[in-house]
Amino acid sequence: MRRAEFERLCRNWPFEKGDALTGAVLPLVRGRLAGQRGGKLPVIWIETCDSGDNNISFLNTAAPYADQVFSGMIDLLYSNTFMAAQGRDALWLLQDAHERRKQRYTLVVEGAIPLGGRGRFAVIAWTPAGPLTAYDAVRWLGSAAEYVVALGTCAAFGGPSAARPNPTGCAAVSEVIDGTVINVSGCPVNPDWFVGTLAHLLLYGMPELDERGRPVMFYGSTVHRHCQRRSYFDQKVFAQRLGDRECLFSLGCAGPKTYADCPYRLWVDHVSWPVKANTPCIGCTNPDFPDGSTPFFTPLPEKARLPQKGETAENRKPPRVLGDAARGRASPEPGS
C-alpha cells in the first residue's frame, strides 16, 4: 500500500467498511515481521500532568481494537497504566528500554510538563538519586527517541493543565525538548487520531504536519467546514437554547476556529459527537484551549473580549498560546 493510499484510508476511515484499517495495517505489519523489516513499533508511554482521559479514550478504539494494537502494531515497552510491573521492576524496564532501543523507540507523552516547584508537581518514579520528575523523564527519554508524540491537548499545547492561573507552571512537551514533536491534540484525543498516527509512523515514518505540529490527515480542516448544521449557519439560523436543532454558533460553538474531523469521524465507535448531542464544540484541539474557549456558551466573537477570573481590564492577559513565554527550551523554576 502506498503512503498516499494509507493517508486517504485514515481520512475516510469512518466511511469505509468497519475493519478497513485493521485489514490494511495488520497484514502489512505481519509482512514486516515475516520479512524481518523492523517488526512492530517500539513505544514508551508515560503520563505526566493530565487527567488520564486519553488512555481511556484509546481503549475505545475499534478496528483495530486495543488488543490488536498491542499484539499486532506496537511493542509497548513501558506504560504505567497498561503494564503489570510496578516499583523497581517498572523503573528497570524503563531504563532497559531506553538503553536497548535508543533512536528506535517512539516516546508517547500524555500530559503537560510542570515547571514550577523544581518540576516536582509530577514525579514519574523514585530512584536512589531522588525523584524522577516529568520534566527530567521527558528530557531524558525524548533525547533518545526516534519520534515523540504529544498525546492530548495538555501534552501538545499545555491544555487545561496550563490554564489560568497555571499554578504548577505547566508547559507543552515541545517547550521542554528539542526536535520535532507530533501533536495529537484533543481533550480527550479521538482514538482514531492516535492509532492512525502510530500506524503511519510504523509503516511510513513521519506524517505531514500542520503549522501546529498536528497530522494533516486528521487536522486538515475545521469542524465548521464539515458540520452537519453548516447550512443553518450559512442561512443565519441560530439556536436559542441547548437542544435546538439549529446552528450552535450563537451558543458558543468554536467549530469555525477548530481544526479536527469530528463531524464525520464521530466518537465511541463512530456513533456521535458533541454537536450531534446538541452541545457546542468547545475547541478542545486548539492551542489556546481552554482559556480561548471560555466561557463555553458565549458566542465566539465575544469570548476574547471577556475577562477571565481574577482579571481586570488593566491586568488582563491574552489566552495562553504555545511558546508565548518560551525563550529556547523551558526549564523548571529554581527553589523548593
Question: Can you give a write-up of this model?
Answer:
There is one protein chain. This protein has 336 residues and is α/β, with parallel strands linked by helices. The chain has two domains: 3-219, Rossmann fold; 223-303, Cytochrome-c3 hydrogenase, C-terminal domain (Cytochrome-c3 Hydrogenase, Chain A, domain 2), CATH 4.10.480.10. The protein is built from 13 helices and nine strands. Strands 2-1-3-7-9 form a five-stranded parallel β-sheet, with helices on both faces. Strands 4-8 form a two-stranded antiparallel sheet. Strands 5-6 form a two-stranded antiparallel sheet. Strand 5 (123-127) and strand 6 form a beta hairpin. The radius of gyration is 20 Å and the shape is globular. The model is unreliable at 312-328 (pLDDT under 50).
